[in-house]
Specification:
alpha/beta, TIM Barrel, magnesium ion binding, transferase, metal-binding, thiamine-phosphate diphosphorylase activity, Thiamine-phosphate synthase
Length: 206
């Protein structure tokens, strides 16, 4: 959870996503989520398999955003689902007992419900304003601390996080930070990952 990389092809600029993911994990990303909102199943699955080959080589957990069938077909380590996506129980039925299921949560009630349903971790946000999800409501530091107090499963914060603001989350009890543009929008993804990893260690461990 320490440095959770969420892909975004909007920033590719002609570069190959699997290569950028490799740069990210070499630089310190400890977890990778493949997020594709517009891609057809076959292309999504092909890309997922290519990225899983990278994450397997570096022994980094790899999950698919939303699409349980792609996660199953590529044998990903799990899936991350939102509040409007499939239920945790459905994801568990399809993927089996050993896969990772992450759930997005924005309130204490959502966090508790996800844990009770069997989620393995929570993605909580948006903790800062973000260009990735323009309609996302901001989760305050107080709410983040409330969620931490309410559940025992790991929590990763997401939403507008970068090197400059990450340490504002210090003391919230989270287990890591999820980044999108702070990583994949950078010209040198490897160098960005190194900086973000160092900062996330300071955030979590002090």
């Amino acid at each position: 959870m320490l440095l959770y990389a969420v892909t975004d092809r909007a920033w590719l600029r002609g570069r190959a996503l699997p290569a950028l993911v490799e740069d990210a994990v070499r630089g310190g990303a400890t977890f990778v989520q493949l997020r594709e909102k517009e891609m057809e199943f076959a292309a999504f699955l092909d890309e997922a398999r290519r990225i899983k080959a990278v994450t397997d080589r570096y022994h980094v957990p790899f999950v698919i955003n939303d699409d349980i069938e792609v996660a199953r077909a590529c044998n990903a380590d799990g899936v991350h689902i939102g509040q409007d996506d499939a239920a945790v129980s459905e994801a568990r039925r399809i993927l089996g007992p050993d896969k990772i299921i992450g759930v997005s949560a924005h309130t204490v009630d959502e966090a508790r419900a996800a844990e009770q349903a069997g989620a393995d971790y929570l993605g909580v946000g948006a903790v800062f304003s973000t260009s990735t999800k323009l309609d996302a409501d901001i989760v305050t530091l107080q709410t983040l601390r409330g969620i931490r107090a309410a559940v025992s499963i790991p929590i990763v914060a997401i939403g507008g996080i970068n090197v400059e603001n990450m340490l504002q989350l210090k003391g919230s009890g989270i287990d890591g930070a999820a980044v999108v543009s702070a990583l994949f929008a950078q010209q040198d993804v490897y160098a960005a990952a190194k900086r973000l990893y160092a900062t996330s260690k300071e955030l979590v461990f002090g």
